[in-house]
Each structure stands twice: as structure tokens, then as C-alpha cells.
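Appendix B. Raw example, untouched.
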Amino acid sequence: MKKSAKLVMLAVLTLALAVPAMAVSQDKAPAKKQDTATKGLRVFFTSHSLQWYVPAPLGELAKAAGLSDHKLVGHQQIGGNPTLAQWNLAEAKNEAKKALKKGEVDVFVMAPIQAPDQGIENFVKLGLEHNPNMRFSAQVSWGAYDADMQTFPQSGKGAGKVDRNKTVEQLVKIHEINIRALEAQADDINKKYGKGKKVLFLVPSAQATITLRTKIINKEMPGIATQGELFRDAISHPTAPLEALNTYLHFAAIYRQSPVGLPPSSLLKKDKKYDDKTDRVLQEIAWETITKYPYSGVTATPAAKGK
């Protein structure tokens, strides 16, 4: 890579990671060794449409990684709604609450839209009452309509078409308010319920998307020529590459190990236009982003697997 290109990428990473870095917890306790999973975990997902494709292919990744006892306890889906809508679902239909009350969930995954979201705190409180050793994760989603998620759904009114030709600076600005809001709520919940440890972690899906789009802008992304190829529609529902990237992020978040070197996600394989080169870069983006984001709880150890 030319020297100038290296400088551009350094600037990109600095911009993309600058927002979360501003809100790093001031906890001065010494870092503990990462609790990397060596066996399958019991996982429950509550999802909207920017996440609900993740559970099945994530299970495939877990199996490929030797975690054959991975268990999807359940998956509650409500399109276009915050986590509070998941909490407020009628008791008879609320499989998420039922699962937590049984105390048989190791990781509970949420997909808020903006923050603060009272549903996040409600699920954390309920879950810890029945299993004090479990943990929770919340996806930091990329902006619907390429707009700040704190303004959803108003940001989509009259949006028939979205200009995807954004600069890196524009992408960072679009996402920074929502990222800070979710980080602030994570800090508050961990202080309130963590008893000296973190119980709620964030999955940096927005930040990874910024990095992916930056590579496309710089013509460094194999198999993807334009930012618009990542989205099916104006609302920003993802196509196969972004679906795969997000699945790799959630795998890394749940199992705290690298997806690099695992077989390509079935989400990507079903689209014939993408090859192993595309997949490899997506895996690397996922691992690099999540290990550089303090709120994920994932560090760069153990080392990434090689193909």
C-alpha cells in the first residue's frame, strides 16, 4: 500500500473510533483476563429488522468454531421498534421474559433503536434476578435512511431515495449522537446493576459499517464498488455483505473470539458475486472494530485464526 493510502486509512480509523473513545468508562480497576468461551452458550435474541437475520448463521459459525453445543434459546422479533416494545409485548406472547425468568440464558442480545431505551434496563434487571452470571449485549445500529437513529422514524418521512455517497466525516457525524447516548446508558446500567463489573456490552455495528463504507470510498473493498450496494432500500436494510459483517460482530461479541478464518457466512455465500476475498476483509473489519471498542468487552486475544 502506498504511503499516502496508509495515512488515509489511519485518519479513517481515528475518525471512526473517535466517537466511542470519547465516552470510555473512567473505571480505573486493573483489566481482567478476558473470559473467552470454550463451550457453547445459551443465547436469546430480541431483534428488529437490522438484526433479525443474525441468529441462524451465527449458530453455523459457532459450530464451525467447535462450539457445537451453542443453543439458540429463542428469538423474539418486532420490526421497526425499540427494545421497550419487546418488553411491553403481551405476557402470554413474551418469550423473552419467559426465558429470563427460567434463568437459562447466558447471553441476552438486544437491538435498541435510540437511547435511552427503558426496555434495555428492564431486561437487564429481570435477567440478573434469575441468573446473576449472565450478560447482555445491545447492537449499536447504523443509521436508518443514513440519518441519526435518535431521530427515527421522523428521519424517514418523505425519504423515497437516499444519497449513499457519503464522506467519512459525514458518516461519523450521522452516528456520533446515537453512539454516545447508548454508551451513556450502558455506563448507567453497569453502575446500577453490575456490582463492580460490567453486565451490559455494546456491539459496534454502526462503527464497523463506517469502516466498511470507508474502504469502499477508498476503493479498497474487494467485490463491492459502491456504498449503495450495502443496502436493499432507503431505510437501510442490509444486503449480504453487511448482514455477514454484522453476524461476525455478534459472534465475536458473544464468544469473545475472532471470526477470522472461519468458513464464509452462509449469508454471503448465497450471493454468487462475492468471494473469499470479500469475506476475509469483512471478518477482519469485524474483529478489528470490536477489539478496539471498549464497550464491547472483547480484546484482541486470543489471536485471530488464519486461513
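End of appendix B.
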